[in-house]
């Protein structure tokens, strides 16, 4: 049984608290080229592969939801498609390393046969390999479940964060379970994950985007929390919390960034202007970390922030 500290707070309350305490920081836009004018957003943090740093990003026409995930490397200040790298017809990439093996995934989207703009369902799909060039499919999540993330635990097991929706009369919540090996990552195990209570109001939602094993064995979770206002305008904020896999206790959520901390830019639609979709976090060991995030479903930015996981390691 999971427990948590305190009751859920609304996005609005969390944002007001965050504005009072946040330091003055300004992020920067990442420049992508070689994608025929398409947008690149909802990126991962850079990760090592074959001796260089690589970013996976969602590549998409501004007026379409049909996406590809491509792998990018930095050349002369720009991120360009890596020559020879595979391309996946997926959305919202993520990566983790489990026992030295790269686990990559994204969201597979199903469109209506009669209306190519209408999405009928989606699911998370997983690939594994010791390098990008060797990735092979090995697992799929349940239908309509996004934000499934893996982390190698201090115990040697694998922690699995899930995102069931709906949960009773709640829009979506975060779940957690553990498996002994990647071969146990099945739809059944993901559906059976225990739900973490008291994280979101029933009318709001969120999910995990990346999970970090901390020095003391706790897990630092990078995620997002979201709400929709009366005008159907979406508001997404990067957030973080700590999770103890032994006691199954989660700390309260905290916001770590907001749209006004990043440069102005275009949005895919007017209802997506205030959307930040956490991609990944690089911790620097000096009390700071760099957040990589999708912005307004049109761009990818990064922002140096105070390391949100430090307090959970003490």
UniProtKB/TrEMBL annotation:
InterPro entries: Glyco_hydro_beta-prop_sf, MPT-1-like_LmxM
Pfam families in the record: DUF1861 (PF08950)
Protein name: DUF1861 family protein
Species of the source: Cohnella fermenti
